[in-house]
Amino acid sequence: MTTRQIIRQGGKAAFVVIPIAEWRRIEARLEDKADVAAARAFLDDPGETFPDAVVAALLDGASPVKTFREYRGLTQAALARAARTSAAYVSQIERGARRAGRQLTARLGAALEVDRDLLEPRN
Q: What is the pLDDT of residues 3-60, one digit of tens each?
């Protein structure tokens, strides 16, 4: 039997103190349930996955805009048209000479069919 201490405030149970071993068992079960829920959500809607080469390039610090542009088979000019900007600006973003603002990042994400958060450089 587990020893629990109940702490009352205003005559009502407010807190329960339990042994750390019991807390760790509870915590592990909650984590397992969260992992199962995440796996089920992924299986229900896996979204798009990317090839290892794309992920490796991003992890190696390559420009996300350039990486996804090349993956989608677009030229800088085609991406610029789709995102309503100039090819020169796209080139500057890819080289790290300029940063895209929020609105342009959203348009680039839409044109590249990726979440805009994936286009943020990981400096």
A: 889 999 999 999 999 999 999 999 999 999 999 999 999 899 888 889 999 999 999 9
Query: What sections of the chain are H helices per DSSP?
Result: 20-44, 52-59, 64-72, 76-83, 87-95, 102-112
Using CB atoms within 10 Å of the CB of residue 89, give its burial: 0 to 12 exposed, 13 to 18 middle, 19+ buried: middle
Q: Whose structure tokens read 């900007």?
A: 85
Q: Where are the domains of the chain?
A: 5-44, 52-119
CATH topology of domain 52-119: 434 Repressor (Amino-terminal Domain) (1.10.260)
- For 19, residues 6+ apart whose C-beta sits below 8 A from its C-beta are 2, 3
